[in-house]
Every structure is written in structure tokens, then in C-alpha cells.
Specification:
alpha+beta; about 250 residues; FAS1 domain
Length: about 250
């Protein structure tokens, strides 16, 4: 009897402990519509299941408007590497970060543990300014994002922090060169920038076909010559008759 009670107590305590320390990042982010794109990509890249199976952990969530600029043109494996940089393998809520009080701390991310990071790519540098603002950026980079607010926290298990922009690094797709965002397409050229030869004006309906003028003039000349020749024949005959008469009279 005592052994059965002990076994029951063990399973009860284990169940209560597991329930109190388990979480589901998908369900957590489902309660915040502004992180729906970030949440969907965690599922597509299978990072959600990785987060659910690790603790303590901190997720740096990015809002939909930022994700809209991050995703286009990038392969899914590149997006996975970038998002894994937003998963810190330790527990940090706002209170813990601000307790740094003007100091900096190096954070290890899931990307570093993947073995795919080069140099300091898998580490983040968190700095607390004197005014209390918390800035986070890739180690060795001057570009930083700011912690906006705490989304949720389960002390020493999981913390979700909203950051103002994505933390970017230069990563390469699987079996490919480092990814570079595609250039923006050039705007269509302005028609005013081009010179066109104007097409010839259509002939006037009253104008003559090419060459008609000279031919007509020639015809007139020929016609005039013919008339002149015809009109001159009677005068020539009359002169011939007069000449003959005068010749006989002499």
C-alpha cells in the first residue's frame, strides 16, 4: 500500500512539474496577431518544435511589418538561419536585462549551436543604456535593434521579447554563395529621354505623285511643238507658191 502511494505521488509530482514548466511557442504567439508572420515562419522552418523542447530560452519576436521586408527573395533555409539568431539559449526578461545597468552581455543563440555560424555570427551583444533602453545586435556589428516590450515570460523557462527590427547577418543558402538581396528593378525609362525620327508626313491628296510634274511639263512642251509645226505648214506652202510664180514670171 505504501509503495503504491509513493509511486502515485511520484507521478503526480512529475506531472505537475512538467505541466508548470512546459510551453508552446506557437500557442503563445497565436495570442498576438502582430507576430503572425513570425509565428508562421517558426513553424515552417521547424524552429517552433526546437523552441518547445529547450529551456531556458528567450525568443526575440519581430512584428509583421518588419517580416514583410525580411522575407521576399530569401530562400527558406536562409530565413531559418536568420530566425535562429533570434532564439537565445538562456532566460532573459526585461527585468534581468535592465539589471545589467549600463553594462553589456554576450548572448549565445540557437544559430551558434547549429555549427553553421562563422566567427561571431552566432552571438548577440546586449547593452543597457543609461536611460534604461536595451539594445541588441549581432556581435561585432554596429547595427542594433531595440527591445520594445515584453510579450510574455515564464520565469526561468521562456521569455518572449518584442524587438524593433530584425537582426541581420550575411549567411549563405545551402550549397550556395552568400545570399544577397536581389536589386530593385529599374524604373521604366521616360519616353522623353529618347529621340525618335519623325515619320514622313503623308502626301496631300492634292499633290501629284513623284515625277508627275516633269512628265506633265514635257507633255505640254511636246504638244506645243506639234501645234507650232502644224500651224507653220500653210505659211510655208503659201511662200513656196509665191516663190514659184515669181520664178516663172522672170
Amino acid at each position: 500500500m505504501s509503495s503504491s502511494l509513493t509511486l502515485f505521488s511520484f507521478f503526480a509530482v512529475t506531472f505537475l512539474y512538467t505541466s508548470s514548466h512546459s510551453f508552446n511557442i506557437t500557442n503563445i504567439l497565436n495570442q498576438h496577431n502582430d507576430f503572425s508572420k513570425f509565428n508562421n515562419l517558426l513553424t515552417q522552418t521547424q524552429l517552433a518544435s526546437t523552441i518547445n523542447n529547450r529551456q531556458p530560452i528567450t525568443v526575440l519576436a519581430v512584428s509583421n511589418d518588419v517580416m514583410s521586408a525580411l522575407v521576399p527573395g530569401r530562400p527558406l533555409d536562409v530565413i531559418k538561419k536568420i530566425l535562429s539568431l533570434h532564439i537565445v539559449l538562456d532566460y532573459y526578461d526585461e527585468k534581468k536585462l535592465k539589471s545589467l545597468n549600463g553594462k553589456s552581455v554576450i548572448l549565445t543563440t540557437l544559430f551558434q549551436s547549429s555549427g553553421q555560424a562563422q566567427g561571431q555570427q552566432g552571438f548577440l551583444n546586449a547593452t543597457v543604456l543609461k536611460n534604461g533602453d536595451v539594445l541588441i545586435g549581432s556581435a561585432g556589428s554596429s547595427v542594433q535593434t531595440q527591445v520594445v516590450e515584453s510579450v510574455m515570460s515564464q520565469p526561468f523557462n521562456i521569455s518572449v521579447l518584442h524587438i524593433s527590427s530584425a537582426i541581420m547577418i550575411n549567411v549563405r543558402p545551402e550549397n550556395g554563395p552568400p545570399f544577397t538581396p536581389p536589386p530593385r528593378s529599374a524604373p521604366p525609362p521616360n519616353d522623353d529621354d529618347y529621340d525618335y525620327d519623325e515619320p514622313p508626313s503623308p502626301p496631300s491628296p492634292h499633290s501629284s505623285a513623284p515625277g508627275a510634274g516633269p512628265l506633265k511639263a514635257t507633255a505640254k512642251t511636246s504638244s506645243a511643238s506639234g501645234v507650232s509645226g502644224i500651224n507653220s505648214h500653210p505659211a510655208f506652202a503659201f511662200a513656196l507658191v509665191i516663190t514659184s510664180i515669181l520664178w516663172f514670171m522672170t
